Amino acid sequence: MFHLSFVIAGGLAWAQLPITEAPVNEPLMPNAAALMKEVQANQQKMDEVRENYTFHRMQRLEELDGKGAVKKISTTEREVFFVNGRQIGRLVKRDETPLSEAEDKKEQERVRKLAMEFSKKPPSFGRGGRINLINMILAVSEVSNPRRTQMNGRSTLVFDFKGDPKAEAHGMEEKGAKKVEGSVWIDEADRQVARMEVEFYDNFRIAGGLLASIQKGTIMKMEMSPIGEGLWMPTLNEQHMNLRVIVKGVHENSRVTNFDFKRFNAEAVQSAAK
């Protein structure tokens, strides 16, 4: 199935966090462009801290029929870690069933080779993921309604955005970003993205519609949470995807939860491997 690099979240029932508007005597809102430069710089620093953590990721995928009824459900669980800023996920369960001994051995070998490959590449801290996504969207969007709210008891800056059809765009991702609208929440103290919600307000044709098209109404959402050392990690991603590939329509809901965050002790792993 085709995936855009900026498809990150959206779609099932979304549990809204308590948000209340801040008093009118709060400090002035920072400029959106200047704020994002701060967030980008902080993200690169936090990406290096993230290298020390591992966690588990559970994905639940619902395939829908043309009327929106669920026709198939599948789940996967992976153990995720990072090498030189690049993410690696080791499959540990499929539909809640652990891999067989042979499958696990094959998966471990795949992950080992991938880790070796990434370890030889230049670090890619701060070059991808949610922050670059936001910068890309803001580059071709009109930003409005800046405000300060409270999320989980923390002061949070919020901006709405909508892609400008007249904006100059380079590459498929930016062209797709011109078709979306939504909001981004940024933790004021940590300068980290706490939430992002995106919806396609128009159809987006990939390769002129010859390969695929993302349909209007596709929704993507992401939520981040602090886990320590100033580091925020994705804890919930959801998407409701309406995609047409060639002549076949694809409709699915995806819910991804990350949990069991642990600090990775590289020295202990190296000792155990001897």
Blueprint of the fold:
Layout: E1 19-21, H1 32-50, E2 53-64, E3 70-83, E4 86-94, E5 97-98, H2 101-119, H3 130-139, E6 141-151, E7 154-163, H4 171-177, E8 180-187, E9 192-200, E10 204-206, E11 212-214, E12 219-228, E13 231-245, E14 248-263, H5 266-273
Antiparallel strand pairs: 1-6, 2-3, 2-14, 3-4, 4-5, 6-7, 7-8, 8-9, 9-12, 10-11, 11-13, 12-13, 13-14
Helix pairs in contact: 1-3
Q: Can you tell me about this structure?
A:
The structure is a single chain. The chain has 274 residues and is an alpha+beta fold. It has one domain. It is 23% helix and 46% strand. The protein has five helices and 14 strands. The protein has helices at 32-50, 101-119, 130-139, 171-177, 266-273, and strands at 19-21, 53-64, 70-83, 86-94, 97-98, 141-151, 154-163, 180-187, 192-200, 204-206, 212-214, 219-228, 231-245, 248-263. Strands 1, 2, 3, 4, 5, 6, 7, 8, 9, 10, 11, 12, 13 and 14 form a 14-stranded antiparallel β-sheet that branches. Helix 1 (32-50) runs antiparallel to helix 3 (130-139).
Q: How big is the Rg?
A: 20 Å
Helix vs. strand class = alpha+beta
In sequence order, what are the helices and strands, one letter per element?
EHEEEEHHEEHEEEEEEEH
Task: Please count the helical segments.
Answer: 5
Number of domains: 1
Strand content: over 45%
The termini sit apart by 41 Å
Mean pLDDT: 81
Low-confidence stretches: 1-17, 19-24, 267-274
Main sheet summary: 14 strands, antiparallel
Fraction of residues in H or I helices: 10-25%
Tell the overall outline. Answer: globular
The total strand number stands at 14
